[in-house]
Amino acid sequence: MSAIRFLLNGHERAVEGVAPTATVLEHLRRTERLTGTKEGCAEGDCGACTILLSEPDGEGSLRRRAVNACILFMPALHGKSVETVESLRAPDGTPHPVQRALVEHHASQCGFCTPGFAMQLHAGWIAGGLPAGDRAAVKDLVSGNLCRCTGYGPIVDAGLALADVAVPDTAGADAATARRLEALRGDDVFDYQAPAGRWLSPPDVDTLADLYAAHPDAQLVAGATDVGLWVTKGHRALPLLIDVANVADLRHVEEGPHALYFGAAVTHAEARPHLARLHPDLDELMRRFAGYQTRNSGTVGGNIANGSPIGDLAPALIALGARVHLRRGDAMRQLPLEDFFLAYGRQDRERGEFVVALEVPLLDPAERYAVSKISKRFDSDISAVLAAFKLRFEGDVVAEARLAFGGMAGTPARASTAEAALLGRRFSREAARDAAEALAEDFQPLTDMRASAGYRLLVAGNAIERFRLELEGSVPTRIREVA
């Protein structure tokens, strides 16, 4: 195909010739002159560029997501619908309920961030996700949006007011839009070529395996929440990209009797309810995982395959004993997740091999689990240290220990010496202290902008003691947010 075909505020577009790494934000502002969508950070942090992206859900309706336009590549729009802030008001100029709420609650100061907040609140409102009186839910909804005028109070008030406004029935319109988008998308590989590069988007995993085997130097991309920064901040040229986000086989979650199976293209937002049922700490981790829009785009497979030493998901899953499933051509293999990470920037993945799924064991009644995220900012921030622990007890003695950390080494890793300090012992204050002291043998962390080496070792050890106190139940260990 020679054109990227999509709907923009209800109108069909066919875009040709743009680079595959041109961002949606650039196109909206420079070509479409829809300047309500702002550029604040160009790295998916501030939410000023928030748009609503919709696609067929396979059941005759739409799957809607609020996403960041600044790191979304243009070919990713193919067969989808984009709504910008300009689409909110009615054709006769009547303000949208979200716009009225923002005005009535004086929720705009300089106004630069307001369009992004408006689109994020709209996304939550249209999905029925604004329960009456739930201030914490509104704050979570806008966690990926920054207001430099510090006007969050009135913005949250506007979101609370929307909970009392009836959501229109869009079932018929959504079904019609889904049919239009399916016709635009087609059933074959989307092969977009432009002078600056090429974008391939296969519909199924077998085609993906064939394409990646034929083009092992291609850059795989899903939500582009990290690859997008390679372009916007690093100015890297990516001449060939293979998009895995539309591979239906990679977008399923299966709950088996002993494990959860997450397809590599499952987004963090889609994974959260399944992980939450596994353990409440995983729900809290995913609530704080990046920002709302990033969770709507980023995928579990991308987070693992990226191999970042400060990615939150890897240590949380390593502690659970997760396994990664890989494919190269027709060959399949799996290995423990901790063995996938070899060194900084290097994983046990051959040319043409890609992540298919993550297998996450369910917790046994004799096992106890906890996750601690330490970061400078509560919302939408990268961890200085991510600690995840699983202990299996026989009576009151530790029979198995898995202590996993992010931010402590060049890769997410287990603390084998600290684990050994706990085995065969009661999980007492002395045992926790010995494990904390053993961390210095397991890790020699770096000092960087997020934390010093000494701080990292200290808080990692403190996380072990907090886990002990939480299991003991003697004192509160976590500050609960006041709405």
From TrEMBL:
Residues 192-365 form the FAD-binding PCMH-type domain. Pfam families: CO_deh_flav_C, FAD_binding_5, Fer2, Fer2_2. Transmembrane segments: none annotated. Residues 2-88 form the 2Fe-2S ferredoxin-type domain. NCBIfam families: xanthine_xdhA. The keyword Iron applies. GO terms for molecular function: 2 iron, 2 sulfur cluster binding; FAD binding; iron ion binding; xanthine dehydrogenase activity. Gene3D superfamilies: 3.10.20.30, 3.30.465.10, [2Fe-2S]-binding domain (1.10.150.120), CO dehydrogenase flavoprotein, C-terminal domain (3.30.390.50), Uridine Diphospho-n-acetylenolpyruvylglucosamine Reductase, domain 2 (3.30.43.10). Keywords: FAD, Flavoprotein, Iron, Metal-binding, Oxidoreductase. SMART domains: CO_deh_flav_C (SM01092). This is Xanthine dehydrogenase small subunit. PROSITE patterns: 2FE2S_FER_1 (PS00197), 2FE2S_FER_2 (PS51085), FAD_PCMH (PS51387). PANTHER family: XANTHINE DEHYDROGENASE.
